[in-house]
Specification:
The protein is an alpha/beta fold. It has 19 helices and 21 strands. The structure holds 2-acetamido-2-deoxy-beta-D-glucopyranose (3 copies) and zinc ion.
């Protein structure tokens, strides 16, 4: 820094004063050059959103058009990486092109996991002399409602390694860490055994990981009837899980393309070697079965009876196992293969008029385990209708301030692959230019109440939108009223419950890597009696039976898809068109305070939370608290 002497200082002040006076003169006496035209430009630049646009968008959503898209998208199985899913990509592309968007297909070459051809993954009950006494079914029963199709993929857990371990079974309830702790306390050694556990409560990948950490050599997962049925009437006569229904699903702990962590899966990106992949992928074979098959295996188990909370809905006493009747064993036979395939995201853009470099994103995945009725086609169909009403309004003369992008992701079911790869390729500009990402997925997972998870900054905008949107299943009420009544905030019942975005759909890379506000919304069943998972899933989740017929059983008029579409497009309009972005950091601060309070363990002076459930930038905020309050951070269970 230069030292300023006394004389130099006076001269500098003099110069500043002269410059200031000259500037004032120019301002006062310059000829008036701003005519009515520039006035118009100025007014356009500073105009606020036109509130009536939202009403046209909301009332424009047509459930008959949603139904038409739903029928097309669910007409064939469309697993990621198959020609049938390229067909859905082309359908979405054609729809958006016709609606007037600038559309791009964005392919990536990613590593997915499929069952080996000409092999059926099974679990068998084996006698001590090696005879096979029972073998689990080779697929789900096809009723006469179009379930029979050559492209249906057999039930499997993607990214399970191949293998054929043979051992006694140990029953581990939901296979959470606490369940394994209880097993150890009860004196059951899991080491060298095959774990059998029910789906629910936590992500299935964690179950596999916990089983592995406790020394298991394999794991079998099943959906217990107590969690996925309500009485004995099941699909096709109700929405409840039939005995052969099986939940598919990936078991990877790290999301995105497994071979290109942190980088887009393009031709120029280096892939992990086979050894590196092996080190990060699941270590023990995992196989999902239906509860009819689970019954046949569980009833052969010996050992002490499992605790009362561990008893499920099958007509047997669930035992902890370790030994089995007549020295039988269970043999898993899993043959999966990793395969590099092309996947396709479809991205539709429409430029804003004033701040065209700012973009609001709306997205949903398109790939499904089988027909994908609720998951994800109820959401995809709703999204195609949202983009239509938006484009129609623009054709009608509306000039949205910012840009919008609609995104149809591929390979979400294999670990959010399509969205992660796209974010990895575009993260630099997204961090600077993306305003928010609004996600929908299984829009019609139930008909009781909407459930929304959002970054707290979006709270006011979402509530404002919900007050404008009718609940189409409850005539005369707004979505806000029904939501508040059926799914209230646990701390303040004046408001509906707004959850924190957790994991499990394509908003995750936007929440955690781009670090922008995100939202995900779906209609759910909160009261229908499935105790487990009741807010996360629905009875036919990832089974053969989640198709068009199932969606229409849950919601014949598609009023739920219509309400969710209206809520999301109105929230998007607010974000696209408002002069000042409708994001409120005070709500964020308040929410973080709340989390810290609930997570703060005053005895240990430690904040415990799971990095997986709280996004990266929330972790940084927690670290800030740590430095202010002199408390330490712990990662793990809350
Ligand atoms: C469990 O069994 C394994 C293998 O038989 C053994 O190495 C281990 O020590 C056992 N653990 C306990 C706690 O008994
Ligand atoms: C369901 O249970 C009821 C009552 O236990 C019984 O009467 C009925 O026959 C059962 N229906 C079927 C399809 O099993
Ligand atoms: C949801 O659907 C079921 C089955 O059609 C119906 O009995 C129930 O009344 C519906 N619930 C609501 C809240 O609309
Ligand atoms: Zn989904």
């Amino acid at each position: 820094m230069a030292v300023i002497t006394g004389r130099g200082c006076i001269a500098a002040i003099g110069l500043i004063v002269i410059a200031f006076v000259v500037g004032l003169m120019i301002g006062l006496f310059a000829p008036q050059r701003y005519g009515p035209k520039s006035d118009l430009i100025l007014r356009r630049l500073t105009r606020d959103a036109e509130p009536d646009v939202g009403n046209t968008l909301i009332s424009g959503i047509d459930p008959a058009i949603i139904d038409k898209h739903l029928q097309y998208l669910t007409s064939r199985p469309h697993l990621a990486g198959t020609p049938d899913n390229l067909r859905t990509a082309e359908y979405v592309k054609d729809q958006w092109t016709e609606q007037g968007y600038d559309v791009q297909m964005v392919p990536y070459d990613v590593l997915l996991s499929y069952p080996e051809e000409n092999h059926i993954n099974t679990a068998s009950l084996v006698a001590s002399d090696g005879r096979v006494l029972y073998q689990t079914s080779t697929g789900e029963h096809a009723f006469s409602h179009g379930e029979s199709h050559p492209e249906v993929v057999q039930p499997y857990n993607a990214f399970s390694p191949s293998g054929h371990p043979e051992s006694e079974l140990v029953y581990a309830n939901y296979a959470r860490d606490v369940d394994f702790e209880n097993l150890a306390r009860l004196g059951v050694n899991v080491s060298g055994k095959i774990v059998i556990a029910r789906y629910g409560q936590i992500f299935r990948g964690n179950k596999v990981n916990f089983a592995y950490q406790n020394g298991a050599v394999g794991i079998i997962l099943f959906m217990d009837p107590s969690d996925y049925t309500d009485g004995n009437v099941t699909y096709p006569d109700s929405i409840w899980l039939p005995p052969t229904g099986v939940q598919r699903g990936n078991i990877v702990m790290i999301k995105g393309d497994q071979a290109t962590p942190g980088y887009p899966a393009t031709w120029y990106t280096e892939r992990l070697t086979e050894e590196e992949l092996k080190a990060k992928l699941p270590k023990i074979p995992c196989h999902p079965i239906g509860y009819a098959d689970a019954y046949m295996l569980l009833r052969e188990m010996e050992g002490t009876a499992a605790p009362p909370e561990w008893q499920g809905g099958l007509n047997i006493t669930y035992r902890l196992g370790g030994t089995m009747a007549a020295n039988t064993k269970v043999k898993l036979f899993v043959k999966n293969k990793l395969k590099t395939v092309k996947i396709y995201n479809v991205i539709a853009k429409m430029k804003g008029v004033i701040e065209s470099d700012r973009v609001v994103l709306i997205g949903n995945h398109r790939d499904a385990w089988v027909f994908g009725g609720v998951d994800p086609s109820s959401g995809s169909a709703a999204m195609l209708e949202m983009s239509r009403v938006y484009a129609e309004r623009v054709k009608g003369g509306w000039e949205p301030r910012r840009s919008v992008m609609f995104c149809s992701w591929d390979a979400e079911e294999f670990g959010l692959v399509g969205s992660y790869e796209w974010v990895e390729e575009n993260v630099m500009w997204l961090r600077n230019q993306a305003v928010a990402y609004l996600n929908i997925d299984s829009t019609t997972a139930g008909n009781y109440s909407i459930g929304v998870a959002a970054t707290p900054t979006l709270r006011r905008a979402v509530f404002r939108a919900a007050k404008k949107v009718p609940d189409y299943n409850q005539a005369g009420q707004t979505l806000f009223d029904v939501w508040r009544e059926r799914n209230p905030d646990t701390l303040n019942s004046e408001f509906p419950r707004l959850k924190m975005p957790g994991a499990g759909s394509d908003f995750v890379p936007f929440e955690e890597d781009v670090a922008i506000p995100t939202l995900t919304a779906a209609y759910r069943n909160m009261d229908l009696g499935y105790r487990v998972h009741k807010e996360h899933t629905h009875p036919l989740y990832h089974t053969l039976y989640d198709g068009y017929r199932y969606v229409k059983m849950i919601d014949p008029e598609l009023g739920t898809a219509r309400s969710v579409a209206a809520l999301v497009i109105e929230t998007a309009r607010d974000l696209v068109d408002s002069l000042i972005l409708p994001l409120d950091v005070r709500d964020y601060a308040e929410a973080v305070e709340g989390y810290i309070e609930t997570l703060f363990d005053s005895e240990k002076r430690t904040i415990f939370f799971s990095r997986h459930n709280i996004g990266g930038y929330q972790v940084r905020i927690a670290q800030f608290y740590q430095s202010r309050r002199g408390i330490s951070l712990g990662f793990g269970q809350s």
